[in-house]
Amino acid sequence: REGRGIRQGNENEEVAIYRYVTKGTFDAYNWSLVENKQRFISQVMTSKAVSRSCEDIDEATLSYAEIKAVATGNPLIKEKMEIDNDVQRLKLLKASYDNQRYGLQDNFMIKYPKLIKTATEKLANVREDVKARDKKLIDNPEFAITIGKATYTERVDGGTMMLEAISKCKTGETTAIGKFHGFELLVEKNFLGINYMVLRGKTEYKAELSTSPVGSMVKLENLFNGLHENIDFLEKKIEQYQNDLEASKAEYDKPFAYSEELNEKLA
């Protein structure tokens, strides 16, 4: 601590702090105690990991170590202490490097392979759904929606009955209410008051509901007619995941930049 030199209420714009130490005295031991105490405090008070810069080492800890080195009066001991400080910096950087590699390894061995697998499987399902949609539109291009056990060929009637069915569904659940061109039609109601229509084929497609019967039918048809748009989206996601995987692997393979310096100082 700097005593009462630096504190709230001090009206002086600048404060000069002097540290006095005598070579070859017990001061070296005292500064060693201060250094160790500061190092412990710094480890408790700072939770951030050291990244790519040596400046992340606590300045107060190094300052105390340097004063301790000067106090010894022995140039060899001073040199050793300076090397010890450098080693400490480099070891912290190495620990940060190792920690980062664990995350990168998880990325290219677990995270991205899993994302790629899931997206690839969904892409295959979307392609199957698009084929089924196209066949339905060729076989029966006219509008028709089934709500419950009744089928409606007018959009206003279909939309009205769909909204009525939705009003009876429980909040927080996804409930099947009918069919649309061979796809199962469900409604999802959440606790935020937002309702979604869901089309389920090999996979699911979702769009927010309108409050009007005709508006709901327009959104439903847009969702159905736009199934193929998911193909382009998923292909881009898979490509992105693959690029991220390769970038993680390349970063993982980079050697520790200060490995040679650390080995030299440890020798």
Automatic annotation (TrEMBL):
Transmembrane segments: none annotated. The keyword rRNA-binding does not apply. It comes from human gut metagenome. This is Helicase. InterPro entries: P-loop_NTPase. Keywords: Coiled coil. Residues 217-251 form a coiled coil.
